[in-house]
């Protein structure tokens, strides 16, 4: 198949590109700074010559959007919103204008669309969409708003010959340098992998192999449209999540962090405390109902595999993107 991945130069793009190319597909990445073979330039805003690669492709997987690894200032939140909504609209315009449109468009979304909650898991049918929770910082609602507008941009695209799926993905765990697993593992190895702010908040995650398998499953299954959760069936409290990670690497202790320490840690990581403190309890309702089997359903086994591959070193876990590889 010819598969086009707008925004495919980041962490998730590297995972998909690697796996889909190895599976024999012809993968083209749309990027604002093309430098390598199979990369085509676009600006994520306006139609241009790049739309020719969409015309005649089989699958489009749009991952583009300003990185969420930043402080959530007003300007950064606005850039996160605009880059996601506009790039999705322009991908939709390219598909709508194509003489031979792709048969499926997988659009990245996020598990962050669901409410901060502890009481029950969120699936696609009974899950609670966030934005109105009491006692959480006001800007958390804005992250939900980004996710909703992102999905709406795909829904509103007039692409009658192309099946549309929104990927409500949890954190994708791969051993690659600079990815989210790498950051968490570094914290654990420094002895800082303890509970944050009590550690009750749920962590949803998906192993990179299952993420790729789920994408392939959704490409194949013509009966599935709309939002689909990509998350392992075993989300767990952050305290247990980090304990399993420490045990997989062999780190005996993890210092607990209070709220203000999380602030400091998030600042040091150039990230935001929402990523650490929001309870994301998300389960794969539609994937499971459709018969998808996770290879890594439980976190201890997944963490064990990721640690093993991480220990193989750079050959086993290549850098995930140009910018991360160069340390930028
Ligand atoms: N990583 C996860 O675990 C995870 C989980 C759930 C959802 N997501 C979402 O999935 C998508 C991919 O994740 P990722 O971790 O691979 O993100 P990433 O590493 O930040 O990569 C996203 C890509 O988007 C492109 N981009 C950035 N700003 C842009 C803009 N203003 N206009 C057009 N393109 C822009 C960049 O490509 P160029 O600079 O080459 O143009 C970048 O490589 C993101 O939207 C993320 O929010 C990720």
TrEMBL record:
Family: Belongs to the NAD(P)-dependent epimerase/dehydratase family. SDR39U1 subfamily.
SUPFAM superfamilies, sorted: NAD(P)-binding Rossmann-fold domains
Source organism of this protein record: Streptomyces dysideae
InterPro entries: DUF1731, Epimerase_deHydtase, NAD(P)-bd_dom_sf, SDR39U1
Domain spans labelled DUF1731: 273-305
Domain NAD-dependent epimerase/dehydratase as annotated: residue spans: 3-222
Pfam families, sorted: DUF1731, Epimerase
PANTHER family, A to Z: EPIMERASE FAMILY PROTEIN SDR39U1 (PTHR11092:SF0), SUGAR NUCLEOTIDE EPIMERASE RELATED (PTHR11092)
Protein's UniProt name: Epimerase
Gene3D superfamilies the UniProt entry points to: NAD(P)-binding Rossmann-like Domain (3.40.50.720)
């Amino acid at each position: 198949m010819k598969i086009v991945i707008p925004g495919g130069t980041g962490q998730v793009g590297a995972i998909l590109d690697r796996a889909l190319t190895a599976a024999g597909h012809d993968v083209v990445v749309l990027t604002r700074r093309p430098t390598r073979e199979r990369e085509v330039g676009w600006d994520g805003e306006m139609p241009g010559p790049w739309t020719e690669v969409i015309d005649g492709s089989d699958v489009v997987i749009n991952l583009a959007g300003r990185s969420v690894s930043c402080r959530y200032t007003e300007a950064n939140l606005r850039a996160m919103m605009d880059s996601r909504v506009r790039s999705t609209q322009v991908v939709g315009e390219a598909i709508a204008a194509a003489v031979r449109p792709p048969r499926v468009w997988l659009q990245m979304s996020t598990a962050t669309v669901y409410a901060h909650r502890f009481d029950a898991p969120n699936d696609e049918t009974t899950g609670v969409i966030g934005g109105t929770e009491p006692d959480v910082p006001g800007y958390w609602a804005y992250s939900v708003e980004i996710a909703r507008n992102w999905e709406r941009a795909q829904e509103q695209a007039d692409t009658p010959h192309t099946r549309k799926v929104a990927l409500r993905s949890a954190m994708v765990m791969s051993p690659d340098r600079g990815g989210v697993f790498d950051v968490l593992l570094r914290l654990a190895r420094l002895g800082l992998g303890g509970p944050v702010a009590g550690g009750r908040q749920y962590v949803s995650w998906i192993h990179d192999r299952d993420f790729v398998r789920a994408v392939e499953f959704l490409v194949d299954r013509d009966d599935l449209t709309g939002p689909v959760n990509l998350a392992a069936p075993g989300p767990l409290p952050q305290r247990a999540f980090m304990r399993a990670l420490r045990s997989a690497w062999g780190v005996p202790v993890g210092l607990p962090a209070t709220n203000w320490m999380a602030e400091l840690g998030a600042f040091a990581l150039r990230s935001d405390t929402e990523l650490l403190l929001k309870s994301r309890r998300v389960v794969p309702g539609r994937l499971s109902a459709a018969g998808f089997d996770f290879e890594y359903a439980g976190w201890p086994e997944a963490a064990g595999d990721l640690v093993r591959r991480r220990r193989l070193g750079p050959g086993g876990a290549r850098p995930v993107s140009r910018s991360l590889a160069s340390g930028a």
